Amino acid sequence: MKAIRRFSVRPVLPEPLRPLSELARNLRWSWHPETRELFQAVDPEGWSAAAGDPMRLLGSVPAPRLAALADDRRFRRRLAAAADDLQDYLTGRRWYQEQPEGLPAAIAYFSPEFGITAALPQYSGGLGILAGDHLKSASDLGVPLIGVGLLYRHGYFRQSLSREGWQQEHYPLLDPNELPLTMLREPDGSASRISLALPGGRSLRAYIWQARVGRVPLLLLDSDVEENGPGEREVTDRLYGGGGEHRLLQEMLLGIGGVRAVRTYCRLTGHPEPEVFHTNEGHAGFLGLERIRELVATGLDFDAALEHARAGAVFTTHTPVPAGIDRFDRELVARHFGPAGELPGIDVERVLELGLETYPGGEPNLFNMAVMGLRLAQRANGVSTLHGQVSRQMFAGLWPGFDPEEVPIDSVTNGVHAPTWVAPEVLRLGARRVGAGRAEDALAAGGSQRWDALAEIPDADIWELRRTLREQLVEEVRERLRASWRERGAGTAELGWIDGVLDPDVLTIGFARRVPSYKRLTLMLRDRDRLMELLLHPERPVQIVVAGKAHPADDSGKRLVQELVRFADDPRVRRRLVFLPDYGMAMAQRLYPGCDVWLNNPLRPLEACGTSGMKAALNGCLNLSVLDGWWDEWYEPDFGWAIPTADGAAMDEDRRDDLEAAALYDLLERRVAPRFYDRAHGGLPGRWIEMVRRTLTTLGPKVLAGRMVREYVERLYAPAAEAQRALTPAAASELAAWKARVRAGWPGVAVDHVEAVADTALNGTATLGSTVSLRVSVTLGPLDPADVEVQAVAGRVDPTDRLSQTAVFPLKPAGGPALDGRRLYEGPLTLDRTGPFGYTVRILPAHRLLSSGAEMGLVTLPSEATGEAAGVLLR
C-alpha cells in the first residue's frame, strides 16, 4: 500500500543532547572530521545506514541509546567541546575581518546549483560543486556571503543501468523537512514567501528555506506552495529539467525571486544588505533586472538605475561553448516582462535589448542569458587563464573594434575546498608534520606558496598512505559494483567474480565527470586491443575506474555511457575496468584519494577549468591530462603528464581522436606505468613518490578554494563595492546622461591625420631605444577633450600588420582647437624592442566612473588613408 500523505516525525533529544541538533543543522559537519566522528559515536551502525547524514541518523537512534548517551559524561564532554568549537568558528575573527576597511559589508552569491554535501542533493556537476566550495571557503575566511539558489524537490536524477548498460534516471522525492534546512518565517510565525507576477494574472509564489553552511546562509527558493497552480508548483521540481518556459520561470525565480529572498532575509535577521551581487553563470542573470526595478521605484530613471546596478555586479561565465548557454525566444521573454508580467513600469524593449544577440554573428531574435549577464555586470571573469582567453574571443562581438585581448573579461582560476576533498588519512599525515591546527588552517584558508613541511615526509610513509587509500577504493568499488549488478538483474550466484575486481597493488586510473561529448568519455576505447594490452600487461598492468552521468535528454551521451559499460562487462577486462553508476559527492570523496592517476581528455579548449583533477592532486594523485583548463596553467613535468593535442581548424575530428588516443596509450605504456612499477630501494617507486611529494608541496596550495575566494575578494568584490559606493543616485544619473551624450556624438569623432617625427630618419628602420614623436589631428564633433582619451598603441606587428604584445601610451592635447575645430594631440613613442614593430592610434571614451576604456564598446581608429604604414622594422 502507498501512503496518501507523508510527514516527518522529529526526535525529541534529551536536554543534555540538544547541541546535537545545532551541530546537525549546520553543514560545517560535512567538512569537519571531529564533528562527523562525534555523530558516528552516537550510533556507528546507524551512521553507516544513514550514509553519513546527521539528520537521518538522529531520526533513527533508539530512545534507550539517546538516554544512555545523555548519562555518558565522556560523551557529553565531547559534545560540549564540539558545540563550543562550532560557536568559536561562527563568531571568531577570520581572514576577512583582519583586512583593511572598505571591503563589502555583504555579498550575494547566486547559482542554479550548490554541491555542499550528498545529504543535500542540489547539484549536478562541476558548477554546483564549485558553488558549494565557494560558500564553504567564504565561511572559513569569514567572507560575509549570502548564497541564493533553488530547492529542487527531486534534486538531480539518480542514475542506474539497465541489463544492456543503458542509463536510467530516477527522481526520488525530497522532503525539505528531512533535510538540514529551516524555513524562513515572519515574526508572527508564518512562512516567509516571495511572489512573481506571471502573464494572465497568475502568480508564482515561493517559500524560502535556509541551509547554514558554516557562517554562510544559503537561501533556497521552493515553488511547492499550495496557493500556486499546478504548473507553478512544479517550477522547482528538477534541476535542469524541462525546457523553454519551464527553464525561463526557474531562472526568473532564481534571479528576481532570489533578490527578493535576500531582502526578506536581511529584514528578518538584521544581516547587512549586500553591496555586491555575484552571478555564478548566466542562469541567475535576471537578478540585475530586479535591482534595476528597485532603483526605478525610488525615482531613478532606467539608464541611471542600470549604471548603479552594474557597478556592484560581478558575472562569472563557466562555459566555453555556446551550446552551454541558456537562450530563449524573444517573444517568450517579451510575454513574461510585458505589461501583464513582471517588472511593471519598465519598458519591455529595454529588458530585451540587454539580452538579445544584436552583434555580428549573433541571432537577433534570441535572448542570451550570458550576454545579459555581461551587459548587467561591470566586472566579469572566466574560471582559468585559458578560459578567460576563450571567453574574450567568444564574446568579443559585444565590444566591436577591440581586439579579444582587450575585451573586459578577467579570469580567476577555480579552486577546491580542501577540507571537503582531502581524505582524513592525508590530513592526519600532514598534521603529524605541522600540527593539526596549522594543517587545518593551511587547507582552509591557504595563503602559502608552497607546503615545504611536507617535503620531509619519508618515502615509506607516502607509499603506505597511497596503498591504504587504494585499498579503500577497491573495497568501495566492489561494494558499489555488486549493488549495480543487482539493480541490473543479476543474481548472487552470478557475481562471485566481483571479489576479484581491482587489485590494491595495481596502478589505478580514475576518470569521473559529466558526459557531454567534448569530455570524450570513450576516447580510451579508440583502440580497444591496445587498451586491453595495457589493462592485462603481465608485469605493468593498469586498472581504470570510470563514473559519470549523461544529461537525461542527451541520448548521444547515454550511448557513450553504454559503449563504455559494454566494454567493461567483457569478462576479459571486467576485473581491470569498471563503470560505477550514480556518480556524486559521496562516491567522489573515495574515488579521488584512491586513484594514482587522474585522467582528463577533453577537446581543447572546451574545458573551462576541470576541478576534479585538483581534488585528486590534494590527495597525492598525479594528473594525466590534455593541456586545458587549470592544467594548461599549472602543469609541470614534476607532478604529472600532458597529453599532446592535435587541435586546429583543419583537423578532422576522427583523425584528432585517433592521434590523441594514440598519445594517451603511449604515455601510459612508456612513461606512466614504468615509473609506477620502477621499484628500487626497499621495493619503493622512488621517482613516483617524488612526483607525489611535488604534487602536494607545489600544486596543493595553488588549487585551494581559499586562494580562489581571496582573489574574488581582492580583485572583484572590493572594486565592485567601491564602484557601487561611488555611484550614488546623482552620480549614476550623471554617468548615464554622459554615456547617452557620448553615444549620440560618437559618429562625429574621427582621427584625421597621424604624423611621426623620429629623432633619426626612419626610412622603414630605426634603432632600439630611439624615440618617435607622434602628432595626431582629431575631430571630436560635439564632444569635449574631457570626454575622450587619445592613445597610441604599439607592439609586435605580423606580416598582415596585426599588432600583438601591445602597450598603450596616452597622448596629450597640444593647445586649443584649430579654426576648423580639429584638435592636436602629441606624445613620444619609445622603440623599446627589436624586430617587426608597429603602432596605431585610437580614440576612446574617458570618464572617471568607467571600469575600463572598453566598457562602452566605442573606439575610433584611423582610416587606411589617414594612417602611415604600420610596420617599422627595428634592428
Can you give a write-up of this model?
With 875 residues, this protein is an alpha/beta fold. 38% of the residues lie in helices and 18% in strands. It is built from 28 helices and 28 strands. Strands 1, 2, 5, 6, 7, 8, 9, 10, 13 and 14 form a ten-stranded mixed beta sheet that branches. An eight-stranded mixed beta sheet has the order 21-23-26-25-24-27-28-22, with no helix packed on it. Helix 24 (629-634) links the parallel strand 19 (622-626) and strand 20. Helix 9 packs across helix 10 (287-297) and helix 17 (424-434) packs across helix 18 (436-444). The longest helix is centred in the middle third of the chain and has 29 residues, at 459-487. The model is unreliable at 869-875 (pLDDT under 50).
Quick summary of this structure?
With 875 residues, the protein is of the alpha/beta class.
Q: Average pLDDT across residues?
A: 93
Give helix % range.
25-40%
- Work out the number of β strands: 28
- The radius of gyration over CA amounts to 30 Å
Tell me the overall shape: globular
Total helix count?
28
Q: How far do the termini sit from each other?
A: 89 Å
What fraction strand? 15-25%
Biggest β-sheet, characterized?
A: 10 strands, mixed
Unreliable residue runs: 869-875
- What structural class do helix, strand and pairing data support? alpha/beta
Family: Belongs to the glycogen phosphorylase family.
Modified residues (N6-(pyridoxal phosphate)lysine): 615
EC number: 2.4.1.1
Cofactor: pyridoxal 5'-phosphate
